[in-house]
Amino acid sequence: MKCFLAPAVFFLLILPLLSEEGKKIASLSPNLTEMVFLLGKGDCLVGRSSFCDAPPEAKKIRVVGSFGKPFPEPLIASGAKIVITSTVRAKAVPEMLEKAGIRLIVIPDSGFKQYFAALELLGKLLDCRSRAQLEIQKAKKELEQLRRNTDRIPREKRPSVLVLISLSPPVTAGKKSFINEMIQLAGGRNVAEQVNQDYFTCSPEWIYLNQPDLIILCRMDGEKAAENLKQISLFSRLKAVRNNRVLQDLDPSLLYRLGPRTFLGIRRMNHFFFPENPH
After folding, report:
1. Could you tell me the domains of the chain?
2. How far is CA 192 from CA 156, 173, 195, 197, in A?
3. DSSP state letters, 142-167
4. Residue 76 phi/psi, 5° resolution?
5. What one-character DSSP code corresponds to residue 123?
6. pLDDT tens digit sequence for 67-108
7. Quick count: other Cβ atoms within 10 Å of Cβ 219?
8. Looking at beta carbons, which pairs linking 147-152 to residues 24 or more positions away fall under 8 Å?
9. Which residues are bridge partners to 87 per DSSP?
10. How far apart are the first and last CA of the chain?
11. Which of 143, 163, 253, 264 is the most exposed place for a label (fewest CB within 10 A)?
């Protein structure tokens, strides 16, 4: 998913101006929506993306866009003064929002440092700094606990893991993705840990040569039907498929959203990696 802004730079430029704005906010990223509710400020949200479905209360909020892309008329009608998003998916978005008098804040989500920074920023924006610091400390404590539990696992005993974001074409997560971090924290080894990208299309040959011990197939299209990988030529030759070591029932929001429930996703993966002795 392509972002047309330099998020880190935009993040810093906008920070000193937050207190000048009203607190009517639209979120175009599901993870940020969850964070706003985590901070007890769901009532500040007057708009959301069509992908923002958690917590359940979020579904009651007006849809004003899709992921990273606002719908101009509903957004303006919502009265939002600020739009928060982890990415911008169209070049015209910043100019359109500026003309409408709506401030755009891009909050990166490439790793846990960004997660903590996002909570801190939202705490300032929503005037709940103490609550934000409390949640940051709780998250850091949980992160440290996960690290202590799995750091002692030697590399040779860590299963190699392939995350399949899609099958046609096969797309997976590389070194720069937070999913790579999640796999490490769960006690595994990402087969794409040497690929210096966040997400990329991988060839059938690359998958076969890497022969993952485990596969996580987590669909983003909302379909519940599980593909039978044994019936697909490429995947039927993989030891993970032959050994029935494919995780297909993981809630995509636990894997693809860097937010409050990310830690639950890590624990779910850990149980899959080590079914008889989770760490």
Report:
1. 7-138 (3.40.50.1980), 152-273 (3.40.50.1980)
2. 16, 7, 5, 9
3. HHHHHHHHHHTS-GGGSPEEEEESEE
4. -65, -40
5. H
6. 999 999 999 999 999 999 999 988 899 999 999 999 999 999
7. 17
8. 147/185, 149/187, 149/270, 149/279, 150/184, 150/185, 150/186, 150/187, 150/270, 150/279, 152/279
9. none
10. 33
11. 264
